[in-house]
Amino acid sequence: MLTPRAFRPFKLLALFLTPLFALLLAAPAWSFQTRIVSIPSAAMHRAFDATVVLPDDYARGSGAARYPVIYALHGSGGNYADWTSNTQIGKLADRYHVILVMPDGGHESWYIDSPFDTASRYETYVGTEVVSYIDAHFRTLATRQTRAITGLSMGGFGALRIALDHPEAFGAAGSISGAVDPRNCEDEPGIDRIFGNPASHADFWTRNAIVEGADSFERAKIALTIDCGVSDSFVQSNRTLHEKLIALGVPHDYAERPGGHTWSYWSNAIRYQVLFFATSFQRNGWHPATHQA
């Protein structure tokens, strides 16, 4: 038979576990769903995989609720799985009650419809075909006011390029460590296949450089957020874009934080950008508590 003294270790253990269980119960339960879907492209005559993250309440709800959508583009050499493999982006779907879509943009497409490689039509694919597919297959709020696009590095360039060329589709856009001036990336393997020879087609390179088209944001009326690490090789071109936007009076958020061209920086930056987009959606009348169809 156990004596009262023998019970003391169990009492101490109970005293230790009680607050631990309380912490576990208080911790958020991340129950987002991640799906891989195949999205066809009529422009490129093939299908590409994409990652779609649905918030927990998408499945738990009545089936009538509809959600804003944030598109996140990968960088050069990446693919549709980069964001979910290297960050905890899925938690942001639960936190802000949004659908996240990460399409495949090819290894070196720059998300444009290249006149030099007519088989590379990634602006049409991401800006039109992917958006149409997602709206047809998921319960989205299919308006520009509840749709945003961002990306990292090459994807940052692509997000801004697509948003400028498709203002009817995207009411908000962002860039993280964006290659906003591809003229600084002439040594990138394969880039001349998309932009053409930089010597003989310099006008095309210049025409597509985001830093040279800052005035386009004035006309597009896009909620805009841009950030770059202070140790990033692209920081100067991002500063140039920021300064031009200020001179033009274009409203935008701009941030520089410690960090370089790394997943450590990008996994932190995406949290700020999704918050920015969720705030933009709410300014346009959306609220998670009242987003029934």
From TrEMBL:
Keywords: Hydrolase. The keyword Phosphoprotein does not apply. GO terms for molecular function: acyltransferase activity, transferring groups other than amino-acyl groups; hydrolase activity. The keyword Hydrolase applies. Pfam families: Esterase. It comes from the Bacteria. InterPro entries: AB_hydrolase_fold, Esterase-like, Mycobacterial_A85_antigen. This is S-formylglutathione hydrolase FrmB.
